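F.,

This is the one I mentioned.
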């Protein structure tokens, strides 16, 4: 059992869980993730390790509560526990050795770029982070990223920081000076737009993919993606890949496969009336 140390609200439906997992905290590396199961018979949820505190024996998980299983995890309070956390899984991030890296985070993806920015800064790489949200209340991990380098905040409605999308800010950064690598994590349309933006100049662009994933060991095949015309499994070959090689159209299509089943499970859990009011 993995005890919850803290539950912090980051955005309207996003929480940060600090959880006891000492062995994972000691060996995890940027880009890796865990598979979480709240209890017996519960759904297995892949979550990136957003931070770790080896001295305390804890890891940080950021959860967007959109379905039945994620809402149950987000509702856990300090002192309660998660039954299973398996990891660290996946390949660590291929980190730039020197120069200037830009980390682009959209929504909850900002929590995923945080450990990448941490590791880059530890190597002496100059880090610029571009993070975005629908509005001010949806912007997360701003303070943590400011401790690592310059930060540009974008909001869709202009309520905070720079109005507009993160890709617009990235275009300006690319135009202003040398960028040696871009790391992008967020919704599929955002990552695809970032990859297309950097393609003409050939700036290496790494994206973290979020396909349907069950076991995290490459056995189920649910997380297969096409990269450079070849089939890859995000859980063992990724989750990070060359954004210029990813088939984003296929990824988007597969992400919608279980949407109806997820909605039905949530309706059984909370009722159609409540769901209708939230949408």
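My design for it:
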């Amino acid at each position: 059992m993995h005890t919850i140390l803290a539950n912090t609200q980051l955005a309207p439906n996003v929480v940060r869980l600090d959880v006891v997992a000492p062995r994972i905290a000691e060996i995890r590396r940027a880009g890796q993730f865990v598979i979480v199961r709240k209890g017996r018979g519960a759904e297995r949820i892949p979550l990136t390790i957003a931070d770790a505190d080896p001295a305390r024996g804890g890891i940080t998980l950021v959860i967007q509560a959109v379905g039945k299983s994620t809402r149950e995890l987000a509702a856990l309070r300090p002192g309660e526990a998660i039954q299973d956390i398996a990891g660290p899984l996946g390949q660590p991030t291929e980190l730039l050795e020197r120069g200037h890296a830009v980390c682009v985070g959209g929504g909850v993806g900002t929590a995923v770029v945080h450990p990448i920015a941490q590791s880059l800064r530890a190597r002496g790489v100059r880090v610029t982070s571009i993070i975005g949200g629908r509005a001010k209340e949806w912007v997360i991990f701003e303070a943590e990223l400011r401790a690592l380098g310059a930060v540009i905040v974008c909001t869709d409605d202009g309520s905070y920081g720079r109005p507009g999308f993160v890709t617009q800010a990235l275009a300006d950064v690319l135009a202003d000076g040398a960028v040696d690598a871009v790391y992008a994590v967020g919704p599929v349309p955002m990552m695809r737009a970032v990859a297309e933006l950097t393609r003409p100049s050939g700036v290496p662009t790494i994206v973290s993919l979020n396909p349907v994933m069950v076991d995290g060991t490459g056995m189920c095949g649910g997380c297969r993606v096409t990269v450079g015309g070849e089939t890859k499994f995000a859980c063992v070959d990724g989750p990070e890949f060359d954004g210029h090689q990813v088939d984003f159209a296929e990824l988007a299509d597969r992400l919608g496969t279980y949407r109806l089943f997820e909605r039905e499970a949530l309706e059984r859990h909370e009722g159609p009336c409540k769901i209708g009011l939230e949408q």
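Residues 273-279 have pLDDT under 50 and may be disordered.

Talk soon.
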